[in-house]
Amino acid sequence: MMNLLEEAIIYATVMHQGIVRKFNGIPYILHPMEVAQILSTMTEDTEIITAGILHDIVEDTDGTLTEIEKRFGKRVAALVDSESENPYPDEDKSASWQRRKEESLIVLKNSTDIGVKMLWLADKLANIRSLARVYSEQGEAMWNMLHQKDPAMHQWYYKNIAEAVELSLNKTGAFKELIKHINSIWPGTFDSEKSRYKKYREVSVDGCRLLGHGAKGDVYRYDDELVIKVFNQNNTYRDVEQEIAQSRKAFILGIPTAISFGIVSVGNRYGAMYELVESDTLSGCIAKAPGQVEAYAKMMAELAHTIHSIKVTEEDGFSDVSERYLNYVRTGIAYEDDALAAKCVELIKEISNTDTLVHGDFHTGNVFMQNGEPLLIDMDRVAVGHPIAEISDLYYFYVVLGEEKPSVVEEFMGFSYHTAKQFFSFFLKYYLRTEDETRINEVIEKASLLCYIRKIRKLRKKSSISEIERHLINDTIQKIAGLISKLDTLIY
């Protein structure tokens, strides 16, 4: 009886019969065999190596995942699926290139199966070996032979892949070779040290008290003096380095910021260590004393004024806050209503016409209280733009996220949805320095438009949309349309 690998080799050879590789015209089957060989240097797991042999079956032949699952098992099929792009058959491959890559990168970054990361690394290493060989012979003329002719887009793609697999696989020769080839085609993409393994200090948060939970990670009390922010698995070391660098820049500009003193490894995730003695998040303080929510909201408003009083120039190197919201439009409402998306874009572009600094992820889970003074963390989204962006983030976190399911806000913030809404109401009153309900509601309307744009994008991120989610999308689009008909600017 044939074993799994032998059967996969025969099956793949038959399925790829008559197909040749783009650059050199050799039989296509040699590529999946090369991928399998690379995988064999990283693992002895037969299912992972089998998936390497079969990884292009769904994309490049008439074979199906159902058939692969039947013949080789569920895990092999799942691994192959992770490498199979949405074909968008009604679109030219050049036109759909970036969308296909963005969608597939989400799968890679969100996967917790080491086999997925190994398969991606092996496949992309085999591909870039071929690219590097042709590039050494033809130079820039090589790009004209590909569906995507912009070399910068290929650099973006390979760079993201390398960062996504680094923490799990940077001890492997395959990872080091991938970095070497990326740097040979796009010099300076990575520090050359990346081709030599760098070990981060390994720590564990087992038994540590969870202080807060956010979109990018969790914050733990490590000991009496240290706090550690553990980033989600889809965040790379570069994300952590960027946050630390942004924190230092913000501190110099006058934002009260907790500065991380180093990157650590926490299992298969990265962490940033902070010296925050006897401190707690502002969320934790509110959870312990919800009756003091007004005082904490006033403190948060004063902190916002401190941030927004800082003026910066283009030379300071901060991104434009509107870029984030424009991305929400492109990846959300633009799929639903082109005309409405265009109107949203017009309004969003206005909020970049300012030199005001904004935090970009401003909520009580990212503020630590130390000796009665607030210190901010999570600085990777610090940007330039109108404060309406900051207010919209707060409205989103404390009100909009809980509109259908209050427990979402309660789990995120650590206190009740009722308290969350109180917090936002007090914050806005103190931030705007008014109790004029007309004025307050005018700003809420502007903020809510940005919130609902963000909500559409959140609902559309899933690969499949349920009937309930479709109803929410349609309802949110109606809200956006109603606001667009009333608003001629987001500036207040």
Describe this structure in words.
The protein is of the alpha+beta class. The protein folds into three domains: 4-195, Orthogonal Bundle (Hypothetical protein af1432), CATH 1.10.3210; 201-275, 2-Layer Sandwich (Phosphorylase Kinase, domain 1), CATH 3.30.200; 280-486, Aminoglycoside 3'-phosphotransferase, Chain: A, domain 2. 55% of the residues lie in helices and 10% in strands. It is built from 20 helices and twelve strands. It has helices at 4-15, 30-40, 46-54, 57-60, 65-72, 74-82, 93-110, 114-138, 151-169, 173-185, 237-253, 282-288, 293-308, 321-330, 338-350, 388-398, 406-413, 417-432, 437-460, 467-486, and strands spanning 201-202, 209-213, 217-221, 226-231, 260-266, 269-275, 280-281, 319-320, 357-358, 367-370, 373-376, 383-384. The strands form three sheets. It has a six-stranded mixed beta sheet with strand order 1-5-6-4-3-2. Strands 7-10-11 form a three-stranded antiparallel beta sheet. A three-stranded mixed beta sheet has the order 8-12-9. The relative contact order is 0.07.
The number of helical segments is 20
Mean pLDDT: 90
Please indicate the count of domains. 3
Query: Roughly what percent helix?
Result: 40-55%
Question: Span between N and C termini?
Answer: 74 Å
Beta-strand segment tally: 12
CATH class of the largest domain: Alpha Beta
At CATH's second level, what is the architecture of the largest domain? Answer: Alpha-Beta Complex
The gross shape turns out to be globular
Strand content: 5-15%
Indicate the CATH topology of the largest domain.
Aminoglycoside 3'-phosphotransferase, Chain: A, domain 2
Sheet/helix structural class: alpha+beta
Radius of gyration: 25 Å
Uncertain parts: none
Largest sheet, strands/sense/barrel: 6 strands, mixed
| Main sheet: strand order | 1-5-6-4-3-2
